[in-house]
Automatic annotation (TrEMBL):
Keyword Transcription among record annotations: no
Protein name: PilN domain-containing protein
KW Transmembrane (keyword) present: yes
Listed PANTHER family: DNA UTILIZATION PROTEIN HOFN (PTHR40278), TYPE IV PILUS INNER MEMBRANE COMPONENT PILN (PTHR40278:SF2)
Species classification: Bacteria, Pseudomonadati, Pseudomonadota, Gammaproteobacteria, Pseudomonadales
InterPro entries (UniProt xref): Extracell_DNA_Util/SecSys_Comp, PilN
Amino acid sequence: MARINLRPWREELRAEMQKQFVVMILGAAIIAAGLAFLWVSDVDSRIAYQQSRNAYIETAMKQLDKQIKEIEELKRKRDELLARMKVIQDLQGKRPVIVRVFDEMVRTLPDGLFYTELKKAGDTVSIVGMAESNSRISSLMRQFDQSGWFANPNLSNVLAADNKRAGYSQFNLSVQQKTPEPEGEEK
């Protein structure tokens, strides 16, 4: 006897295949979602790690900026102190020089001549004085030329005698101050 199968096996096979397809799609979707979740959480953790590193670098930069400001302030104070020390050393070094300059001015002063005003600007000494004659002024200029402390005397003008000081002429003279080489001087 011949067997005839009247059951709808094709529809069952199709339904079974459809179930398997849906299960595979759902499985693939679940696996894709899991992988996406892992990828997103990895990216988020990397971003959080980088942000923590950036925050650490920012705090370190702020500390370094404070230290740089402190260093700059210390350098400025150091420069001010060095400038003050230099001024003090210059004044200490020049203290005996001014005494020697005044002493030399008195030594070069001939009779019949006196100073009424002295001004010093840099290395130039401006002198206003009174003289009995022009020969006394030229004698003063020669004395300055021969001095070890002065050089380049320059007579700017000579005014005739006025009523206050009869017989005296007023003169304006400028001379360069120089520091002579020490010649076995005491220190």
